[in-house]
Amino acid sequence: MAGGGDDRAGLPRIAVVGAGIFARTQYIPRLREIAHLVVVKAIWSRTQESAKAAAELARDFAPEIECKWGDAGLEEIMGDSSIMGVAVVLAGQVQVELSLKMLKAGKHVIQEKPASESTTEAETALSIYNSFPKQFAHKPIWALAENYRFEPAFVESRKLINDIGDMMHIQVIVEGSMNSSNPYFNSSWRRNFVGGFILDMGVHFIAGLRMLVGSEISTVQLENGCAGVFVFAVNSRSPKILWRVDGTKGTIQIERGIDSGKHGYQVLFSSENGQCQKTFYPFCGVNEELKAFVHDIVEASKDGDHKAEPRSSYVEGARDVAVLEAMLESSAKQGAPVQVKIF
User: What is d(CA 292, CA 289) in angstroms, rounded to the nearest whole number?
Assistant: First the structure.
C-alpha cells in the first residue's frame, strides 16, 4: 500500500476520466505501481455506480480518491486547481471532445489511443488546440497514450536498425484473436467506430512499425522507398504478431510471445556473419508512458517551456491514424496508391 499523509503531499495530482475495461485493468494497476510518483485524486464515469466501483479498485493506493460522475463531475474536475493532469480513457468517439475540454480548462491531458476517428477530426482538434487563447502562460500538454512507442523491445530494436544496412523489405504480420473470449469483443463503441477494430487495434501495429524503422510512411510505403507487407486479420485461430525488417547486412524481428510466464516481445537480431542474438522484453509500455506523462507535467510546472516527451505527442498518434486511414482507402479502391495525410 502506498504511503499516506505528508510523504505524498508534494506529489502531482491527476484524475482518470473513464472507468471502462482498460481503465480498470490497465490504468489502475499501472498507477498503483507508480503511486510513489503521482496521486490519483479522482475517477470519473458516466454513472455513480461505475465511478464508485472503479474507485474501490484504487482505494488501497489512493485512500482519498473521489468519485465523480455525469456532467457535474466533469465540471468539478475541470474546476479543481489541485488536479494538474487528466487521463482520458473513454470510447473513441468522445475522447477528442473531452480532451479538448480538459485542455481548455488548463489541465494537462494524456488521451488513450486512437488519437481520433479520422484525420479530419485530428486536423480540426489540433487547429483548436493550437488556437487556444493566450489565457495560459504556457499551453497545457496534450499527450497520446500509445504504449508501443514505450515498449523496450521497440526502443532497443530502433537502436539496432542501422546495423542491418539498407532496408530491403518489411513485414508486419498481425493475426489477432478478437473473439468472444476477448473482453473487448462486446465493446459497443468499437463496433460503431469508423474503422472499427481495425483502426482501434491497428494504430498499435503502425506505431510499432514507425517506431522501429524511424521513417514515415508516405503512400502506404516508406519515405525511404523500402517496400513492405502489412497483413492484418482481426480474428485468427492461431494468433501471431510480428514485425520483421530485412536489410543488406542483417535482419531484425520483433514477435509477441511469452517467456518464463511473462508476456512481452522476443527480439531477434541476425547479423551478416550469421550470428543471431535473442532478447526477451516483458510488457511495460503503459507503465512507462504514464511515468513519462507524470514527469512532463511536473517539469512543466517548474518550466513552462519544458519540451514534453516526443513519443507521447498527439501528433504522433494522428500520424498512426493517417496511415491506417490510407490503407483502408486504398483497400476500398482495389489497392490503388493513396497518399498518407501529413501531420
Answer: 5
